[in-house]
Design a protein that fits this description.
Elements lengths: L25 H14 L10 H21 L9 H16 L8 H15 L1 H8 L3 H27 L16 H6 L1 E3 L5 E3 L12 H15 L5 H21 L2 H20 L3 H26 L1 H8 L6 H23 L10 H7 L14 H32 L5 H19 L10 H19 L6
Antiparallel strand pairs: 1-2
Helix pairs in contact: 1-2, 1-6, 2-4, 2-5, 3-4, 3-15, 4-14, 5-17, 6-8, 6-9, 8-9, 8-10, 8-11, 9-10, 9-11, 10-11, 10-16, 11-12, 13-15, 15-16, 16-17
């Protein structure tokens, strides 16, 4: 596959003509690969190849960075976030020599994961230069995420849609299997849907994108059949989130929808904001009814736990303990980090632990950052996220570039949802993080091509 470098000519302030066609290239195939590669684990007999399959999704990002560094002839102005990313990587390189880093291989693997996630910020601007191109990429992302969500709903409707084999972390572990199943409306034991993956509940991530992007395209000026398809994907996304019982995904989806509505209002698009808000309310209710019909009362009970107490108490009962440990116990024991490569999949596959340097557990991103680089890592990565969000907001508020502003509103909403996940998940060592930095880089490329400040 040839990397596409000759994007369409840089657009002027005026919208491009409708007949201008931007050729498909590397960005489109990259987005598809992020769904297609994990979906290979859906096939029988692929668990033996789980490591190379899972690694491939990250390796593609690293390979694109190497190509950009060595071969790209397209020059794009450096974004503000890139300096923060460079600082994060420099700190990780220093932490490789921390006395508690368990092994060189495990440390390098963890650093590679970090950089594979962030690398699209550097190479994506080279490939994506127009709002039309970015809109097409978002549409492809919707289709991939929407198909994932539809499969997730079907897996609860008919277990024959489940993968032939589950991740070995789950398979053969009765305790783990019990935590990812629930009793359906007819008394049968149902699996929390994995979607196009091999881990129960994993559909919740792409389902968030399906719900948000589906609604955005449903209120856009595109063909009626595309709007109907987008709306179908949106309601499938909400239904899959309810069925996965990942409550934080539901909360973040509502947050993303609220951000997009607010951004549209601030852009002066009152009609679109109102229509989007009404459709959001419809799919929140409709998705719940579909999930209730398939999953039974346990779905309702799970959702109601979000309303059983104030938000702080609900969070404290879920991931709040990890946050407390991070900023109390770990802050005093390892303020400068506890060595790189002591947690996550890199540690599981490549770690070589000793009595002095044992494996650690991180359920939220703050804990992982504290282990890998201490308070300085937390400050640097949070700084990168804040700078990215602020610049994306500025692009969304631009006047005179309506198509760019519309794309920026979509990217801002999606990325803020991912960023807030740091309080309950570890998104920035997963493919969710790759999507975040890819969209940030793509929007930067489009913004710079318009002569404005990118992300």
């Amino acid at each position: 596959m040839t990397l596409q470098t000759h994007a369409a000519p840089l657009p002027s302030a005026r919208p491009q003509a409708a007949n201008v066609t931007i050729p498909w290239g590397f960005p489109e195939f990259f987005i598809i690969s992020q769904t297609a590669l994990p979906a290979l684990l859906f096939l029988p007999g692929t668990q033996a190849f789980r490591l190379p399959i899972r690694t491939a999704a990250f390796a593609i990002s690293l390979a694109a960075f190497v190509w950009w560094l060595a071969e790209s002839t397209v020059q794009v102005r450096t974004s503000k976030a890139q300096s923060w990313v460079a600082a994060v990587m420099s700190l990780l390189a220093i932490m490789l020599f921390h006395p508690l880093t368990p092994s060189l291989g495990g440390g390098i693997a963890q650093i590679a994961v970090y950089f594979a996630v962030m690398a699209p910020l550097f190479w994506a601007p080279v490939f994506v230069r127009t709002p039309e191109h970015l809109a097409r990429i978002l549409w492809i992302l919707l289709i991939c995420s929407g198909c994932n969500a539809v499969v997730g709903v079907l897996q609860v409707y008919d277990p024959r849609f489940l993968p032939a084999e589950f991740s070995r972390v789950i398979s053969g572990n009765d305790v783990a299997m019990g935590s990812v199943t629930f009793i359906g409306r007819n008394g049968e034991r149902l699996m929390r849907p994995p979607g196009l993956f091999d881990t129960p509940g994993a559909v919740a991530g792409p389902a968030m994108s399906a719900a948000l992007l589906g609604l955005i395209f449903a209120v856009s000026g595109i063909a009626a059949w595309k709007r109907l398809l987008a709306f179908t994907f949106a309601i499938a996304g909400l239904s899959a989130i309810y069925l996965s019982q990942v409550r934080i995904s539901l909360v973040m989806t509502l947050l993303m929808m609220g951000i997009y509505t607010l951004t549209s209002f601030r852009q002066g698009r009152l009609g679109r904001a109102s229509q989007f808000g009404m459709l959001a309310g419809a799919i929140v209710v409709g998705g719940f009814l579909i999930a209730l019909a398939l999953g039974g009362p346990v779905i309702r009970d799970r959702v109601m736990t979000l309303l059983g107490a104030d938000p702080i108490s609900v969070y404290q009962g879920a991931r709040g303990v990890q946050l407390n440990i991070t900023f109390s116990q770990m802050l005093y024991e390892h303020p400068l980090g506890a060595g790189v490569g002591r947690w996550g999949m890199a540690a599981a596959y490549f770690g070589n632990f000793t009595q002095l340097s044992t494996p650690l557990w991180a359920e939220i991103q703050f804990t992982g950052w504290m282990i890998d680089g201490g308070v300085l890592m937390i400050a640097l990565y949070c700084g990168a996220l804040v700078v990215t969000a602020f610049t994306q907001w500025k692009v969304a508020m631009l006047e005179g570039f309506p198509r760019l502003a519309t794309c920026a509103a979509a990217v801002l909403s999606a990325n803020l949802g991912t960023a807030v996940l740091i309080f309950s998940f570890t998104p920035f060592v997963t493919q969710i993080g790759i999507q975040y930095w890819f969209l940030a880089g793509a929007l930067h490329g489009v913004a710079v091509s318009h002569g404005t400040e990118g992300a």
